[in-house]
Amino acid sequence: MEGRISEQRCGIKFCVKLGETGIETFNKLKQAYGEHALSRSQVFKWYKAFSEGRESTKDEPRSGRPSASKTDNNVGKVQALVRSERRLTVRMIASELNLNHTTAHQNLTQELAMRKLCAKNNPKNLTIEQKDNRKDVCLHFLERIQSDRNFLKNVITGDETWIFEYDPETKRQSKEWQTFASQRPKKKRE
User: Fold this and answer.
1) At residue 155, does pLDDT exceed 80?
2) Lower CB count within 10 Å: N or C terminus of the chain?
3) How far is Cα 155 from Cα 162, in angstroms, rounded to an integer?
């Protein structure tokens, strides 16, 4: 689209040099570009600028804050920070790099094509000794059950959350930034 606009500005400049009027220039652009032609006000704005001696068909630099989201420097900084710690939140990244939240999020999702995934629970990997110990304990319990039928009535069950100071990691806490091509992270059960 930018190329089409630049072409039309060159056409306006050419028409000015030929001595055509603004209306004739607008009609020729409408004929050549149809619905994609510049608006009437834009044609007259550029026609006036070229009539007054302007040579460049490019836009003048505008005042205001430049876009910070697309700079290669910022994208590189975000990428380096995320690679060093994948569990950072967008807010933490923005604060660390002195960017606004939207810029940090756009750099992650659009420029780096990353998304935040929860870790998938994976059973704890046991060593050979731990597996042998589990087997021995289970065999011992089977013997106790066979010898004493009321043995299971004396067993109290529970999970790790009942143990003092056990703080399981929530699903949200396990989220990591990953590219679309990378595999989902796994976490071991403690």
Assistant:
1) no
2) N
3) 15
